[in-house]
Amino acid sequence: MKTHAQAVVIGGGVVGCSVLYHLTKAGWRDVMLIERSELTSGSTWHAAGGFHTLNGDPNVAKLQAYTIGLYKEIEAISGQSCGLHLTGGLQLAGTPERMEWLKMAKARGRYLGMELEIISPKEAKDLLPLIDERHFVGALWDPIEGHLDPAGTTHAYARSARIGGAEIVLRNRVTDLVQNPDGTWQVVTEQGTVHAEHVVNCGGLWAREVGRMVGLELPVLAMEHMYVLTEDMPEVAEINRTTGKEVVHAIDFEGEIYIRQERGGMLMGTYEKACRPWSPREAPWSFGQELLVPDLDRIAPSLEVGFAHFPAFERAGIKQVINGPFTFAPDGNPLVGPVRGLRNFWCACAVMAGFSQGGGVGLALSNWMVHGDPGFDVWAMDVARFGSWATLGYTNAKVRENYSRRFSIRFPNEELPAARPMQTTPLYDRMRAQGAVMGDSWGLETPLWFAPEGVEPRDIVSFRRSNDFPHVKAECIAVRERVGVTEIANFAKYEIGGPGAEAFLSRLMTNRMPRAGRIVLTPMLNENGKLIGDFTIARLSSGRDGDRFMMFGSSQAQVHHMRWFERHLPPDGSVTIEPLGMKLVGLSIAGPKARHVLARLTDEDVSDKAFPFMSFRAMDIAAVPAMIGRISYTGDLGYEIWVAPEYQRRLYEKVMEAGADVGIVNFGMRALLSLRLEKNFPTWYRELRPIYGPYEADVGRFVDLSKPDFIGRDAAAREFADGPKLKRVTFRVDAADADVIGDEPVWHDGRVVGWVTSGGYGHYVDASLAQGYVPAHLADGAHGTFEIEIIGERRPARIQPTPLFDPDGLRMRG
């Protein structure tokens, strides 16, 4: 074993071998994989080996498509067969709601180029004679689905990596990781120490333990997963004989099961409700190529449904029950990328669907390590998407919930209950007492809407307009016509200071920094000129010791952004940046009577002249120390008031008292998002993502190309000069009883040309609205006919070039 490597990959499962191969493919030759036992010794060897392209996040689906396309490549390089069986697959719907979900899945696949087909139960039975079609209302057919040999595929990656120059060391456990002062690593193993510039945690079942070596508690948990293998079945032999093909894959959502052919019999696996974690606190290093004790009683309810839906299984003998552990993150997606605060320490773990996602994970991570950017929008897999609230107990509860719901529908207005409430503001109980239906916003309980007296405060989940519709409408109208108040603690809040603060922010952001007492809006770009952030920045003060800024952004991206900020901090200590989290909470008051309410709470002059639009300063509000900005995401006259949490309850009570005679109301997040749609305002993670440039996203007015040196400037200047290829637009949609939720295809003259990023109902303007991206030459809407596909139905849509509410911005400017 050599004693130095540019990168050491820890873990020899399919993901670790994929990362190793992709590093060699990207040009790194001095790379090493260290495995405590043999390749595939964790979860890989007992995996069912299925693969598919379809995913709820289109960006993850693209990486899954890459993974499947990669198998021929590594077979050709290595000479090792992956044992590919491309059978195609059925997703079977047993309810009308599931059929709606499948229609939406097919629609998402349209703009990814996937050849999916909605078929009838009879057509499904023609493809899969094993089913009793009476239990189903339809199905989705996907020709790019199948299974492979897990061991063969892993060895194909490994051999391809070796051919590329990599070294693989087996039977050698990593026992410790020590970072040197220069950021490199001492990888301590049973056979000696390796000095590495980079370390990649592909530990699989032991990813949590590898993380703990560097003081990291990763939100990952292994779950027991069972599938059964049948004896040879005559029905399978008959299908093989008459069709000349293998039995197709199938997922039966109501049974929570999946099936495929295995030699002359069948495999049936289940994601049962009565799920069980494996080694929830610490994974034993002694665990090897062994299985867990089967527990057929636990999966019996799913098997009973499976036997009814696929009668031939009931007549078949069970040859073997496989029970083995697989790792999951709280939301079921992988944990990929660099870890904040640990230079050159990378993760590629919790990849539960390793044979669908492993290749894409390896590609994205190798790009990130070699080129500084993953090359794709991998937000759904970024290890930075979780905060410190994702503790061991939280992870245990959420992974159980996710596992037990793996084949359940997640409705757009559905809030899942596990590990909640986790974080609350001082107003939580007060909001609940007033009928608030709460949502989870990056671990924080946030009011979504308020049920009036006599109405049960709960969501009836649906893909269509639901029971909250009239109540959210009432909140929107109250804000537009009077005044409303909402919590804004779920923003990310940062304080930046020091003599280098202005230069630091100016380098990171596209806009110029404001003078004292003023606010600017600014995107943040990566080196390729793509959007990686969207911020409101206020300068509180200037002085001999430097400047003090407040910055507000998306809470979901706080760790992601802090990782970027810390990477670019000047080494001389001239800048300090602190994420404030729950040290700062706040309220937003908005509507034509907002100034009336504010004036009653302070002795300061808050007139337009004294406190104009985009102002920011400290002042006492309701006798409590506060910072206040003259800005509102509603697009109306409004103020954001920030206070320490100990003052929030008093502030809220005094705001409600001051607004009582003008009809002040509470409004929630759903009303806020409706109001922002009426102003064509974009939002982070939907319209603003790392696959779009600022001119594509129509935020170019916040990019100051006269600044010479901000990150991404040259790429942004090229986009401006050449013109964007895509353009963000707002559509007014002729919807029926359902509005867009995101990821629907946009049709133009009979073909798919774009996609929806977000939308909903604009309650004050009384219109169904959608934002999305279309080719720039179509963005004026002057030619042809647009449609947006909503739950399988193409609805007429037309581009709305100016906001439907207050297009000139007179209300918010006062």
UniProtKB/TrEMBL annotation:
Domain (FAD dependent oxidoreductase): residue spans on this chain: 7-367
UniProt domain FAD dependent oxidoreductase central: residue ranges: 371-424
Sequence ranges assigned to domain Aminomethyltransferase C-terminal in this UniProt record: 727-806
Domain GCVT N-terminal residue range list: 427-707
Matches recorded under Pfam families: DAO (PF01266), FAO_M (PF16350), GCV_T (PF01571), GCV_T_C (PF08669)
Keyword Transmembrane helix attached: no
UniProt KW keywords: Oxidoreductase
Superkingdom of source: Bacteria
Molecular-function GO terms, alphabetical: oxidoreductase activity
InterPro entries with a match to the protein in the record: FAD-dep_OxRdtase (IPR006076), FAD/NAD-bd_sf (IPR036188), FAO_M (IPR032503), GcvT/YgfZ/DmdA (IPR028896), GcvT/YgfZ_C (IPR029043), GcvT_C (IPR013977), GCVT_N (IPR006222), TrmE/GcvT-like (IPR027266)
Family: Belongs to the GcvT family.
Protein name, entry field: Dimethylglycine dehydrogenase
Lineage: Bacteria, Pseudomonadati, Pseudomonadota, Alphaproteobacteria, Hyphomicrobiales
